[in-house]
Amino acid sequence: MKIQTSNIALICTIWAVFAVFSLNAQPIAYVLPSIGAPEFNTYVEVIAPHDAIGAYGADGFYLNNPGDNIRVVPQNPADTAKISIGPIVVSWNGRMISTHIFVHPSVTPNSADWQALDPEFQIPIQVEVGGSRGNFVYFYLVRPQPAINAAGGGDIGSGGSLGIRSKRGAMIVDSIVLGTGDYRISSGDPDPTAAGNQGFLPVTILSKGPIRAAANVTIHVDGTNRDGGPGGGGGGGNFCDVTGGGANGGNGYTGGGRGGKNGSGIPGNNDVYRAPGTGTGDFVNNTGSSLNGVEGGTSPAFEASSGGTGHPFGTSGTGCWSGSGCDAPGGYGGGSGQRQDEDGGAGGYATRGMSSGFDNGGMIHGNQQLVPLAGGSGGASGNPQGISQCSGDGGGGGGAIRLFGREIESVSITANGGLAQVRPEASGGSGSGGGIIVESKLGSSLGTLDATGGAGPRAGGDGYLRLDGPGTVSQNVLGALYTGISTDTTSWVNRRFRLTGTGNGETVAIYVKPEGEPWQFVTNITGYTPPMWSVDITLPGTADLYYLVAAQEVSNPNSAQYEEEPDWLLSQSAANILEYVPTPVIAADTVIQLPDLLCETDYIDTIFVRNEGDAQLTLEGGTFSAANGAFTILSPVFPVGVAPGDSIPVIFRFRAVPDTGGLYQDELTIRSNDPVLARNPYSIRVSVFKDVARFLIVPPVFDLGNISCRTIPIDTTFTIFNDGTVEMEILPPAITGTGVQLINPPPSGFPITIPVGGAQDVQMQIDPSQPGIDSVRILFRSPPALCDKEASVFVLWEWEDIQYTVGDLDDFGTLVCPGDLKDSTITITNNGTADIILENPTSSDSRFAILGPAFPITIPPGQSVDIDVRFDPGSPGTVTGFIEFDVQPCGIREQVTVRGSLETVQLTANPLAFGIQRQSDLPTSLLLDVTNQGTVEVTITAADFSPGSPFSVIGSVPVTLLPGETAQIEVQFDDPGADGDFSDMLVFTYNPSCEPFEIEVTGSRGEASVTIEVGSVAADAGSRISVPIYLRNARALDLFGATGISTIFRYRYIILAPQFSPAGTVVGDWREIPLTLPLTTGADEVAMRLEFIAMLGTIESTELQVINSQGIGGQVDITEVPGEFILSDVCREGGVRLFDSSVPITLAQNAPNPFNGQTRIDYYLIERGNVTLKVLDRLGREVKTLVNRYMEPGAYSAEFDANGLPSGIYFYILQTPSHHIVRTMMLAK
């Protein structure tokens, strides 16, 4: 902050000035921009204090002439020789004036720096309402700053080669060229003597010349963190609870609210404020206000600060005044703070800023015309809660920029809102987008325009965009773009001239002020198609210098308090300083249409060229531009003078290109000393339609060549085309020669009329009267009125008598058997008077072969030739083909149809099989189907087997079969006297017959039989085994109705436990299990597998038997082969020993047995060594080990406690070094 509270004198001075403002009825807070340059207009906005409602009278449009109720004038009348102030538009409820200040071309400022100007170039201006004037502000007349030619980016307006900003932040330069890089606008303070920082006023950059930039060059006026861009409001500084210092408010057009620390009532921990953000004006109520007194963001308590507005008639947000009861709505621009743990509201502008749920986002305000030029607004800070918790800062508002250049190329501009600080405790609200106005006269080709609000949890609202003058935008990020007004660059004019410009289709009003005279309304421009308009202007009076302003109407302007629109829109690009210079003005009819011509080839005419100016006109030269040379100037000889108000004839000739009609157009350009580029050279369009009377005949020549081979007479057609441009009349033709006559239309049908582009077909007949070469000419003419045109058709021919006949080929008929062939002939006879030649013979089908004679064949007149053809069908069916050959000299391709067929003799039958038959079933018979699949009738006369065959045919023959019919032949199988397989061939005799036909017949005599064999298996006790049952040597099992085999599987039950169900029954020592065996087996002949568990028993093996086997459903002879199961590794008591002993080893039966609970086992050992005595269950699983140690020979006993075991049979096993003895015992509970 530049003004310290201790500088009492300066503060008093400032308040004294403000007091003067408040006492004046027409106070001026500031003028933006406040600089102008010679021979240049500056669009300015006069801003009143924000609360000075009606200070400038009623809203509306005023000419600003002496005697008007509302005016903007220089304080010193003598300064009207230096500046002229244009019509004014009052808006925003009497708080703003828009106008133009024109600087006279004769003014020569001493500097481009406003601070270095002599007093004569510092012009005080005032607002006058009802004859009363308020305070004045200076308007500075400066030289344009030198051209800015920069590269690599930088801060424009920061000094040096990037120029400096004026007192109110504006720049006027000769031209601007920006090389690759990003450029920002300096926010350094251009007026150190005034309170606040005027670097945050909106930016105005006016270039008298072009503004050009390299690709991807961008000028930024974005908000940055808390600070707004130039013209944008500052964001609120953050607060911290207990610890942390918080942050200053962001700087901007108005400052953001101050942040700080909330002591939270903890003893010794004080509340502390940081500094408020700096605005463009003084500090008011601890806020950085704007230059017109709008207060900045506030911080009424140590909770949350609000964002400052960027609009001179908007409002900043409200800071939070309590921790839990603070729900402040957003300001008209600035975002407001909220209760604890809530985010700050975002800044708003063209759209609302986002709220944190309590409507604390900045409101919509301003207008789409961006009047006044204003930036976006700042967002509020968040409100933290918790020791050592800090909220996020609010983001600064995007700035505002007005960029004017005569023409603008490739520039991109952004005025985006600043990003808020995001904190988990409570984030700030982002700044809103700002405002961008781009103005030009000759056109602008822009890259990107972007005035988007800052992103984040609470995104800022978008700003406004406006484009004045012809131009395009490559990427308009916001979509909406307001179209303003512009005029062309006209500056040197005659009393009457044409003015062009652009607009959005609304009414355009033109105002002119002759030097030293009042402003005058000239005309309204309505009904034009945007964007371009034009109007002819006649300057009033006799002055040499004029000022011109164009204004665009705003239909139905918004009158809402914070969204007010002006009634009329002015623009930097819509004003001109006009200097009248006596000049010659060339004028002539710009379009000359000569009369249509027909038979004429030359035509001469005159153009009168006038001088409508007030100076001598010199015609320096004139030329026609078309390359065909149809138009030429005959007089005058250039150069030639034309006095003011006089004219001179320019005589020219048209000469058509021979036989070329249609529209001839050319441009006569006359060079002169007329200074207006649009009239020099002066263009006159000359055109004439040259009609052409012409017709042509297609084809013009009929060269029929040798017509000997053609049918006489010959009819043909030619066409008469009217390819001229007028309707043609064709007179009766003149025919020279004989042999040709017109038949449609005939000569009597002429004259005929053919329209333009039309055609008439004429049919003629050629009938030679004698052989030889002849020619005929047919001549057509048009009458003299149609230029006596003529065209001919010629007919040429040569004729001989050529005649011949081609005889039909004898039919080949029908062949029956494969390999049959047949020959026939074609006869050609020459009936004419000249030789004919046969060439290039071909057959369409290889089954028709040309045998001879050899080609080519010459046939003299009156003679014949036979051509031999052979038919070799190869396969059955009817064949149709063609024999072709050329006949010369006529080149006729003759075609003779040939036809033949081969019928099919084909009997079919399937082999006959009787299968196996029992002796008792013989003899038996079957029917054999014999089918005629050929194409002819066949008679079967006999069907026989070989002598001694067991097969014979019973009746059925002879039989006749039509194609497709089937006959049944009964065949009998007699008893051959022995079992076995028998076959024989049944041989048929038939007619017609091309090859033998025989069928195999088979049969067998025998019985159904099979061997059932049980596989043998060996296994240890406790093992799971699979016993296979095989079906071997099977023969015809299913022949006699058997569907399976029933049998009984039996074995000694004590040694095997079945693992399937049903498990059969026990009969004595045997278990018998009924089985049904299928007739089908796998590749290993296994019909079934039975699963068992091997057990210890009183035996070591058992026979596995099948008994009582018989067929199910039919008789089968069955052989039964048993198997065996052997229990492995069993030592039999009393077996061979490795020592000699008279006392046997003994394992006594347990006692008691059966037993309940406990029993005793006695045993006698005959050898020393390791001994085990174990108890096993029936599955061979060890239940208990009774003895396991080294023992000496002798008698022993062991107790077995069976408590906890189920009832059943158990085994106890005594194992010595050379003996293995097993006994069983029964546990019964």
Q: Key features?
A:
mainly beta, 1229 residues, Immunoglobulin-like, 93 strands, disordered N terminus, six-stranded antiparallel β-sheet, 14-stranded parallel β-sheet
Describe the protein:
The protein is 1% helix and 45% strand. The chain is mostly beta strands and 1229 residues long. Among the domains are: 24-142 and 487-581, Immunoglobulins (Immunoglobulin-like), CATH 2.60.40; 586-690, Sandwich (Immunoglobulin-like); 696-799, Immunoglobulin-like (Sandwich), CATH 2.60.40; 804-902, Immunoglobulins (Immunoglobulin-like); 907-1005, Immunoglobulins (Immunoglobulin-like), CATH 2.60.40.10; 1009-1127, Immunoglobulin-like (Sandwich); 1146-1227, Immunoglobulin-like. A hairpin with a 5-residue loop joins strand 74 and strand 75 (997-1005). The protein is flat.
Gyration radius, rounded: 63 Å
Mean pLDDT equals 90
**What is the global morphology?**
flat
The CATH superfamily of the domain at 24-142 and 487-581 is known as Immunoglobulins
CATH topology of the domain at 24-142 and 487-581: Immunoglobulin-like
Biggest β-sheet: count, sense, barrel?
14 strands, parallel
How helix-rich are the residues, as a percent range? under 10%
Low-confidence stretches: 1-23, 1133-1142
> Briefly, what CATH class of the domain at 24-142 and 487-581?
Mainly Beta
Q: How large is the share of residues in beta strands?
A: 35-45%
Gist of the model:
The protein is an all-beta fold and 1229 residues long. Among the domains are: 24-142 and 487-581, Immunoglobulin-like; 586-690, Immunoglobulin-like (Sandwich); 696-799, Sandwich (Immunoglobulin-like), CATH 2.60.40; 804-902, Sandwich (Immunoglobulin-like); 907-1005, Immunoglobulin-like (Sandwich), CATH 2.60.40.10; 1009-1127, Immunoglobulin-like, CATH 2.60.40.680; 1146-1227, Sandwich (Immunoglobulin-like), CATH 2.60.40.1930. It is built from one helix and 93 strands.
